[in-house]
Design brief:
- The chain is built from 13 helices and 7 strands.
- It is α/β, with parallel strands linked by helices.
- It has a 7-stranded mixed sheet with strand order 2-1-3-4-5-6-7, sandwiched between helices.
- The chain is elongated.
Length: 323
């Protein structure tokens, strides 16, 4: 059912600016990494005055967090885009002392949803509002727009809607923005999104390896590209894999070592907490762990057991290199 608050009718970019006040709104953005810097530029391109601060970035607009806050008109709005955990907690703590009652903070990083209530409570002690927002779009977001999953009070969501509209892709708002629920809901939704992403990437990766293992397949990248239109497995992730293979057909320039940024682990933990079976996401997470082992102790044990009970041959370990 269509929400009366967020109508779907299409409007020109200029009309939307006039209706929402985007031309005069000013936003402070803390964190100018790969995502934050592109977000600042997209906001500016769409008529919103975005002032960025990052102590480690050459492109910072303010010399300090204090200077950033002082440059914003009250009531202030500050979007935090720094790594999850201690860095985010540190910035939230600083902002709780620098901002004033009625100001608003948005955590747009990949924080764990359980941190959001803690952040909100710290800020609430000073009369400062808080929203959490899961952001998806990666380094392509500046051009394509970002999908946004927000958590918090409806009035605060409405207040930040000019920013959400500037960041998201053009078209129906419901296709790329959701007010997922109260504080924490946005990051919970993004956590599950990233867990699904783990599974999708693992499925494409395993399909790629299987194609590469078959001698009759003479052009693996061409097969994957042929799936990019019309098939039921087409997706942006598939397009990105095709692009990666066009640049390096054998992926020879990169290692198979794969990090995880936390969301996959949190998703599996939540699946356990809710007794929800999540075998695909769990397997994808464990596959990342396996990628970091040069010589898996577990697989050594399997090999030893096969030799013990069945006399199956085992391969000798490679001699250690001389330093």
């Amino acid at each position: 059912m269509r929400s009366p608050r967020y109508p779907r009718r299409h409007r020109s970019r200029q009309d939307r600016r006039c209706e929402t006040g985007m031309v005069t709104m000013k936003l402070g953005l803390v964190g100018l990494g790969k995502m934050g810097l592109n977000m600042r530029e997209r906001l500016r391109e769409r008529g919103l005055d975005a002032i960025g601060y990052d102590p480690n970035a050459a492109d910072t607009d303010a010399g300090s967090l204090e200077a950033l806050v002082e440059s914003l008109p009250a009531p202030r709005a500050v979007w935090v885009m720094v790594p999850a955990g201690a860095p985010t907690r540190q910035v939230i703590g600083q902002l709780s002392r620098l901002l004033a009652p009625g100001d608003l903070v948005v955590d747009g990083g990949n924080s764990r949803f359980t941190d959001d209530k803690l952040n909100a409570d710290i800020l609430a002690e000073h009369g400062i509002r808080y929203l959490d927002c899961g952001v998806s779009g990666g380094v392509w977001g500046r051009e394509n727009g970002y999908a946004l999953m927000a958590g918090g009070d409806a009035a605060d969501i409405d207040r930040m809607m000019p920013v959400f509209d500037a960041l998201r892709p053009d078209g129906d708002r419901e296709d790329s923005f959701v007010h997922a629920g109260p504080v924490g809901a946005g990051h919970y939704a993004k956590m599950v999104h990233n867990g699904i992403e783990y599974g999708l990437m693992q499925a494409y990766a395993e399909g790629y390896e299987l194609l590469a293992a078959e001698e009759s397949i003479v052009d693996v990248p061409a097969v994957l590209r042929a799936w990019s239109k019309g098939t039921v497995v087409r997706s942006w992730l598939l397009d990105l894999l095709v692009q990666a293979l066009s640049e390096d057909p054998d992926l020879a320039a990169i290692s198979g070592y794969t990090e995880d940024s936390g969301e996959g682990r949190w998703t599996v933990e939540e699946a356990i907490a809710h007794a929800v079976p999540a075998p695909v996401i769990s397997a994808a997470l464990f596959a990342r762990f396996a990628s970091r082992q040069d010589d898996s102790p577990a697989m050594k044990a399997v090999s030893a057991l096969r030799n013990q009970f069945g006399g199956h041959a085992v391969r000798s370990a490679e001699p250690a290199g001389i330093a």
